[in-house]
Design goal:
Undecaprenyl pyrophosphate synthetase; alpha/beta; six-stranded parallel β-sheet; single chain
């Protein structure tokens, strides 16, 4: 087990974009004979630690799955608690994020959230918009199928309106209509809590992501555990359809020419 001292993950490549399913708050609370809310509060501390470590390690984008479109099925008191915790965390953490050079971006169907929370999100995004060290992307009321459906709807509307020729439709066209448009696809996908599934998170975007599953509950996943995960990523060989021999024969510069992400900023559609 790693210690709590921050250190570089190692000589391997650092992922540009890390996506995390923060699972296990409730089970952590149960194991400690605490109410579920205590687990969610403890999870906020892990968010802070991973965000700060991402900046230290040179990660460009960190996407955290905070609230799925399926989470509305949870007991109403827990949902209300999570809404309030989200609001409180925004107010308490945004200044620290800004000081550290981080930019906040929240994706998902935000219309279902209380007006006060939507206003707080908008204010935090504006307050951090000029920062460039890290894009912290929070997926809230988000689902991968919802994302694809909304993108498809916009494409269909553009085609009907004559702004898009259907014969020109491509993967790039669809990708530029996703909620994550303008950002690189995830290189590294982490899930805590012991489950081994994607749970409708960034389904399209994670096609080439390296997957990492840990039995640690999210409140126990601090900076040291994150460094261990990044070190694991650094030992992997990403082939993008090539053979190991081809990859090993390439220079480090050539490795950077892996398939271009359709989410790069200069590829965002002009008709959206």
């Amino acid at each position: 087990m790693a210690n709590n001292t921050s250190e570089k993950a190692g000589a391997g490549a650092v992922p540009r974009h890390v996506a995390i399913i923060m699972d296990g708050n409730g089970r952590w609370a149960r194991a400690h004979h605490l109410p579920r809310g205590a687990g969610h509060r403890a999870g906020v501390k892990s968010v802070r630690a991973v965000v700060e470590e991402s900046i230290r390690q040179g990660v460009e984008v960190l996407t955290l799955f905070a609230f799925s479109s399926e989470n509305w099925r949870r007991p109403r008191p827990e949902v209300d608690f999570l809404m309030q915790l989200f609001l409180t965390a925004l107010r308490s953490e945004v200044n620290k994020l800004k000081e550290n050079g981080g930019r906040l971006r929240v994706i998902g169907d935000l219309g279902a959230f209380p007006e006060r929370l939507r206003q707080e999100i908008a204010g935090a995004e504006v307050a951090t918009a000029a920062n460039t060290k890290l894009t912290l992307q929070i997926a809230a009321n988000y689902g991968g199928r919802w994302d694809l459906t909304e993108a498809t709807r916009r494409i269909a509307q553009a085609a009907v309106a004559g702004r898009l020729d259907p014969d020109t439709l491509s993967e790039v066209t669809l990708a530029t209509q996703l909620a994550t448009a303008g950002l690189p696809d995830p290189d590294f996908f982490i899930r805590t809590g012991g489950e081994r599934r994607l749970s409708n998170f960034l389904l399209w975007q994670s096609a080439y992501a390296e997957l990492y599953f840990t039995d640690l509950m999210w409140p126990d996943f601090g900076a040291a555990a994150f460094i261990e995960a990044l070190a694991d990523y650094g030992r992997r060989q990403r082939r993008f359809g090539q053979t190991s021999e081809q990859v090993m024969g390439q220079s480090a510069q050539a490795l950077d020419s892996a398939p271009e992400s359709p989410h790069d900023p200069d590829r965002v559609s002009t008709w959206r």
